[in-house]
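dude i think i finally got it to work??
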Amino acid sequence: MSKPEKIVAIKGMNDILPQDAPLWELFENTTETILKSYGYQKIVTPIVEQTALFSRAIGAVTDIVEKEMYSFEDSMNGDQLTLRPEGTASVVRAVLEHNLVYDGPRRLWYKGPMFRHERPQRGRYRQFFQFGAEAIGFSGPDIDAEMIMMSRRLWDDLGLQNVRLELNSIGNAEERNRHRADLIAYLEKHEDILDAEAKRRLHSNPLRILDTKNPAMQEMVNAAPRLLDYLGEESLAHFNGVKALLDKNAVQYTVNPRLVRGLDYYNRTVFEWVTDELGAQGTICAGGRYDPLIETFGGKPTPAVGFAMGMERIIELMKGLGEPAEPNVCDVYMVHQGEEAQLQSFILAERIRDAGLDVVLHCATPTGAGSFKSQMKKADGSGAAFAVIIGQDEIANNAAQVKTMRGEVGEQQQAAVPFEEVVDYLVDQIVGSHDHGHDHDHVHYHP
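look at this
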């Protein structure tokens, strides 16, 4: 019989392995804590949505809709479905469907996998994880500034360096239309300089040409009409309000007139947090205002602003700070030998868990249960504070051996503790001396 062919992961869809988990947990816990401190509530939306949701929200003439979405027909009922490529459209759909802003504005946050069929590169994958926040029902520049300051707090709390803020305003639809007409006319005069991608976008999405990375086009693009010069009184007042709040809170930023959005639903404030440490893909967080989107979905005109960040890119930056200290797998490791000892270990392990401690019970492998020596090696590797040891002698004496594992060799102690007293003994030792509190969420870096 031939050996079965090995199945590997789909290109661009990666596993997150146990050794990587501490960094992910540090990022997720820090982000959730900050979002909660600003009054944001969690929302969870499905991974699969109707294709029309994204084509209407993002715009049919965009790279995402044209080339990157994982779309398919449901063979059961013929529905056109898509794996979500971003989070905002799904959140807005849920807000409308469940009438969440009926009693006032909402601050919401989400996290989860998104899917785009693009070329995998550092920190950018076909299945990627995204954290996002959406503030729906707020119209002033204050919420825009809050979003930016909230993300800055995350970089500070994570200890990230060399992350800078770029800011712009893309006004409203009327202002963009006037700018668009002049921009197309300008670009047509320089059509000989445009690359194939720019020529394709010339009439469908000319704003995106301003964001080109093609060196041959930079001088021409720098001299193009600036959208900022087309802003009316209201848009300018809003933008100046955002800048004033950031200035008062010592948030440094650069106004980048070429910072635009390829998605149709953005207006007014747009911002990005960027770094030079990830190569060409330097944006780690992008956001902005999208007041027209909810009306596009059939809702009442409702102002909104949000941001999203790719978790993989931020994890890449965090790796440069050193590895986070490895969290303990458990508080207690149960070591046992013999059938009766195994039964007693199961009973004790459950009682210890009932008391709020984490317990790993040694279980057999294909090579057997393992000697006391090999089990103690496993106990040491688990990071447990204590090993509870039960063998035939312990069964006979109705008492377990409880060994401290974390001190220096000379400080390690071992005590015979009656089975009925083991739980209280461990709780006193762990909770009392280390203020355990059953909290493994705080992870720290070490170089």
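Residues 436-447 have pLDDT under 50 and may be disordered.
im so relieved honestly
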